[in-house]
Each structure stands twice: as C-alpha cells, then as structure tokens.
C-alpha cells in the first residue's frame, strides 16, 4: 500500500503535503503490522501469560488505541472529535491508566529489601555514625 509517483496526482492535493501523506501511509502500515501480530495470538492465551496488572495495562492500551483510531476516523469525516463523546471516553480511559500506573508505582516501591536496609543501618552503627545524625 505504498505511494508511488504513478499513484499520486499532484492536482488532487497540494504538493507540499505529499511527504506528510507518505509518512501517514507508512504509519498506517506499521499499525496494520502490529495489529496482525497482536491478532495472531488468542486473547485468552495472551492473558494467561500476564499478571493481573499487566492484563489491565493491555486492556487499557487496547481500548485507548481503538478510541484514538476512531478519533482520527471522525476527523477524516469532517467531524470535530473534541465535540464528540469519544473525547470523554478517552479522558475516562486516561484516568484508569493513571490509576494503574499509581498501583504499579506503589508495587515497585513496596519491594524494599528489608534485609539490605537492616545491613545498611548496622554498617552505619559499626562505622560509628550515629543514626540520629542521618
């Protein structure tokens, strides 16, 4: 689905946007390839390999991508997506994405190695550095 010089009629659109259209077409090809790869594995098989938090991330990214593509579709049809319910849907999904990120960040922070922390504090005492001075 690549644009060739023969396929383009410069009378159909201004020549200065040709590079933008070619880049857009290349991006569409990339999206198509990613979708084919994603669709080659069954959803249940994919989800079995993921932890619940990763499953939530996958679901949110998938629904955000679909709604973003719908946003672009609306724009190509001359409909202002900012005045369409898809805008609120994208905002709602972003809210959930932020909540999942917060959970993931808390999960990372809670993995403090208590043994290493204890050894660190003991070494400070051994080095005669009073804990009250830290």
UniProtKB/TrEMBL annotation:
One term of GO molecular function: DNA binding
A GO CC term assigned to this protein in UniProt: nucleolus
A biological-process GO annotation: regulation of gene expression
Protein name: Nuclear nucleic acid-binding protein C1D
Recorded family membership: Belongs to the C1D family.
Subcellular location: Cytoplasm; Nucleus, Nucleolus
Subunit (UniProt): Monomer and homodimer.
Organism encoding this protein: Falco tinnunculus
Function: Plays a role in the recruitment of the exosome to pre-rRNA to mediate the 3'-5' end processing of the 5.8S rRNA.
Keyword Lipid metabolism among record annotations: no
Keywords linked to the UniProt accession: Cytoplasm, DNA-binding, Nucleus, RNA-binding, rRNA processing
